[in-house]
Amino acid sequence: MPNDKYLHIYLADHYAGSVAGIELARRCATSNKDNDIGRFLATTLIPAIEEDRETLGRIMHRTGASENRLKNLVFWTGEKLGRLKLNGELTTYSALSRLIELEGLTSGVAGKLCLWQCLRETSDPRLESVDLTELIARAEEQLKGLEVQRRKAAVMALTPEA
Q: Does this model's pTM top 0.85?
């Protein structure tokens, strides 16, 4: 297929993004283990995005794409470096950290939604057995769940003290 080169790059980019996204979700879940946000991440979002990454891996295999280990490492390292961002605290996790992390996760899931939509639009016969409509619906549900948690985090971080 003439566009396989671009498809392979696109899939590898999304796979690398999923590596960073799962790391971010795990860190955010650990930092919020005692609240609803952490429970949502640990019990709902993380298992779903891990499953989606496995599905993406199978799609890559079917299309002849492969992981780009260097790209995975760069994205993984970027996620780790993102922990150094200024969050109003020198050494501790803050309410602003939580909000920024949830916004990052929201961006990642929105990107994944775009991936599934683009793959559906291509009508690639190699993906006929992949239920892209279901994957799109799953990503939309993940976004809805993240939006609920992001709004909670916004209130916790940005509401002025009385």
A: yes
